């Protein structure tokens, strides 16, 4: 059984048994990479927990065929991820948590713009993956919501709906790379999400200095020219709109004191 994603600007189908994607005639994309539970245990609160073997599927560089040359020129890439339903022990289904590797072409750790397609998500982010994580946010998002993670922040995507899969798209830098070592050295990010009666609660990770977690809802990023339209459609309408993703230095002033 698959679910079409045309409302979000791309002719593709998301599959859940098994996890993966198929593409329409005018859309190209890679075979999805499957992240298995054993691959992400080092970032979980309970590395020995039970959960689905296939935790999520990720396809990086999905595009309409006629957009590929423009995306390559602008060093942009669109990724799509779908999660399994269920839990990882006491935690919701979630990504490992990482920081984006510095891109050679920009000299910056790139930002990332998420758009939720299905299910409910929490985009968790923290300023630093150091003893003091700085400001920490949990952004609660549903279908159609956009969430922007600024350059250099540690972050993870968490399913807030254990009874249904979570699917989202994201604009990324074409030279994307995920750095896990700093997160794994501290046994995860600064806050662990835990499921309690189908609600997510938070537990502080003692490998970080005590701090505060702010739970917020998405806001319009009008300063970046982002609208309420599907983010892939926004690229079709204006290919320069997301240049701040691959060239965050061009929007350096907007990242100072950024609030998600």
Structure write-up:
It catalyses: alpha-D-glucose 6-phosphate = beta-D-fructose 6-phosphate. Pathway: Carbohydrate degradation; glycolysis; D-glyceraldehyde 3-phosphate and glycerone phosphate from D-glucose: step 2/4. Pfam families: GPI. Keywords: Gluconeogenesis, Glycolysis, Isomerase. Residues 53-210 form the Glucose-6-phosphate isomerase prokaryote domain. The protein is mainly beta and 260 residues long. It has one domain (2-249): Jelly Rolls (Sandwich), CATH 2.60.120. It is 12% helix and 37% strand. It has 6 helices and 21 strands. It has helices spanning 37-40, 68-74, 181-185, 231-237, 243-246, 252-255, and strands at 2-4, 12-16, 19-23, 27-28, 33-36, 54-60, 63-64, 76-83, 87-88, 91-92, 99-100, 112-118, 121-126, 136-141, 146-149, 154-159, 167-173, 178-179, 191-196, 199-204, 213-216. The strands form 7 sheets. The chain has a 6-stranded antiparallel sheet with strand order 5-6-8-17-12-15. A 4-stranded mixed sheet has the order 16-13-14-21, with no helix packed on it. It is globular and about 45 Å long. The N and C termini lie far apart (35 Å).
């Amino acid at each position: 059984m698959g679910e079409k994603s045309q409302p979000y600007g791309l002719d593709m189908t998301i599959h859940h048994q098994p996890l993966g994607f198929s593409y329409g005639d005018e859309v190209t994309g890679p075979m999805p990479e499957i992240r298995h539970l054993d691959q992400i245990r080092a970032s979980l609160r309970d590395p020995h927990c039970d959960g689905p073997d296939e935790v999520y599927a990720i396809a990086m560089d999905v595009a309409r065929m006629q957009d590929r040359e423009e995306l390559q020129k602008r060093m942009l890439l669109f990724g799509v991820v779908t999660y399994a339903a269920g839990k990882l022990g006491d935690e919701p289904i979630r990504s490992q948590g990482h920081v984006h590797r510095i891109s050679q072409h920009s000299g910056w750790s790139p930002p990332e713009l998420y758009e939720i397609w299905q299910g409910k998500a929490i985009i968790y982010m923290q300023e630093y993956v150091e003893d003091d994580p700085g400001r920490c946010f949990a952004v609660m998002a549903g279908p159609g919501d956009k969430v922007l993670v600024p350059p250099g922040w540690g972050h993870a995507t968490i399913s807030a709906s254990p009874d249904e899969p979570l699917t989202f798209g994201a604009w990324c830098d074409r030279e994307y790379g995920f750095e896990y070592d700093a997160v794994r050295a501290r046994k995860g990010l600064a806050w662990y999400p835990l499921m309690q009666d189908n609600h997510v609660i938070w537990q502080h990770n003692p490998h970080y200095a005590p701090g505060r977690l702010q739970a917020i809802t998405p806001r319009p990023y009008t300063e970046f020219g982002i609208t309420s339209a599907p983010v892939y459609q926004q690229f079709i309408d204006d290919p320069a709109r997301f240049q701040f993703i691959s060239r965050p230095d061009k929007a350096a002033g907007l990242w100072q004191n950024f609030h998600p």
